């Protein structure tokens, strides 16, 4: 048993058969190796009796490692909470794509055993903080691992807003919305909207307008220490939203200001040794393999 990891937290997608099977196997395997195992309460009930059920904050406080079983969506949800704690997070892929979840669900034992023995690589990913200001007061805030998106509350239609970088006016924009993405999120929604891929080690943010009214409007990459301010036109006829990772929604009214900046929190990702970002990209995006 490793000297470094004593208490291990298990997190997964509730009511998902495949995830459930993997969680059961993981729980049994870790207990056999002598680890203390805590299971997030939303999935604990499905694992049977003698399971220690706790909430996500308890996993953050008491565990040395968290294992997330599911797809990237589950990883993002867990990461938004766990980034405030100094514990490593590793993913077992039960989803479709899995940029953040790299252990195979059917044969995790061999890879995980090596990680638990200290053979792993650590990678830090910064988070994005979104705040909505109304008349100078913070009305709502949240963090995102992937991206924050300003968009109309209902069906897609044109909205107007101004964009400032470090209080310098950049441009006004008429578009269906604006995506502000971290390097982690650059392979997600931002990529679908035509944004560039940012390698995870970059300290940068990418702003991608969604269906802009002018064709001269292109995605722009700015330093991650920049403060991005989106000022919503008072003329917008209805309420808008800022979505964090497509999950948490902050409501925005005409005239509000949205401040986006790098969070102090960082997600500590654990990868098996030999993890290669370009190998993952090639697999996920179907890029060509070596010619010779």
TrEMBL record:
Q: Which NCBIfam families match?
A: PRK01231.1 (NF002306), PRK03378.1 (NF002893)
Under Gene Ontology molecular function, one entry of this record is: metal ion binding
Pfam families (alphabetical): NAD_kinase, NAD_kinase_C
The highest taxon in the source lineage is: Bacteria
Chief subcellular location: cytoplasm
Q: What does this protein do?
A: Involved in the regulation of the intracellular balance of NAD and NADP, and is a key enzyme in the biosynthesis of NADP. Catalyzes specifically the phosphorylation on 2'-hydroxyl of the adenosine moiety of NAD to yield NADP.
Binding residues for NAD(+), per the UniProt record? 72-73, 146-147, 157, 174, 176, 187-192
The protein's UniProt keywords, in alphabetical order, are:
ATP-binding, Cytoplasm, Kinase, NAD, NADP, Nucleotide-binding, Transferase
Q: Which reaction does it catalyse?
A: NAD(+) + ATP = ADP + NADP(+) + H(+)
Cofactor dependence: a divalent metal cation
Localization terms from the record: Cytoplasm
Main enzyme class: transferase
Family, per the entry?
Belongs to the NAD kinase family.
According to UniProt, the name of this protein is NAD kinase
Q: Where is the active site?
A: 72
EC id: 2.7.1.23
List GO terms (cellular component aspect): cytoplasm
**What's an example Gene Ontology biological process for this entry?**
NADP+ biosynthetic process
């Amino acid at each position: 048993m490793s000297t470094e990891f004593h208490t291990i937290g298990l997190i997964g997608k509730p009511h998902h058969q495949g995830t459930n099977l993997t969680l059961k196997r993981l729980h049994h395997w870790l207990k056999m190796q002598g680890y203390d195992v805590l299971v997030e309460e939303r999935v604990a009930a499905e694992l049977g009796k003698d399971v220690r059920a706790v909430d996500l904050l308890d996993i953050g406080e008491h565990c040395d490692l968290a294992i997330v079983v599911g797809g990237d969506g589950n990883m993002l949800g867990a990461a938004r909470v766990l980034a405030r704690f100094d514990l490593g997070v590793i993913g077992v892929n039960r989803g479709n794509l899995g940029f953040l979840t790299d252990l195979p669900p059917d044969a995790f034992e061999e890879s995980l055993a090596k990680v638990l023995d200290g053979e792993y690589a650590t990678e830090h990913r910064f988070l994005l903080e979104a705040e909505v200001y109304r008349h100078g007061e913070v009305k709502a805030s949240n963090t995102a691992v992937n991206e924050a998106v300003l968009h109309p509350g209902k069906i897609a239609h044109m909205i107007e807003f101004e964009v400032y970088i470090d209080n310098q006016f950049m441009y006004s924009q008429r578009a269906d919305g604006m995506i502000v993405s971290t390097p982690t999120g650059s392979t997600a929604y931002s990529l679908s909207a035509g944004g560039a891929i940012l390698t995870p080690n970059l300290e940068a943010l990418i702003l991608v307008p969604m269906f802009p009214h002018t064709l001269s409007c292109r995605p722009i990459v700015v330093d991650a220490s920049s403060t991005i301010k989106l000022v919503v036109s008072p003329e917008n006829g209805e309420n808008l939203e800022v979505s964090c990772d497509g999950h948490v929604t902050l409501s925005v009214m005409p005239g509000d200001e949205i401040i986006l900046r790098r969070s102090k929190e960082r997600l500590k990702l654990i990868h098996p040794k030999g993890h290669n970002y370009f190998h993952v990209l090639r697999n996920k995006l179907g890029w060509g393999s070596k010619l010779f």
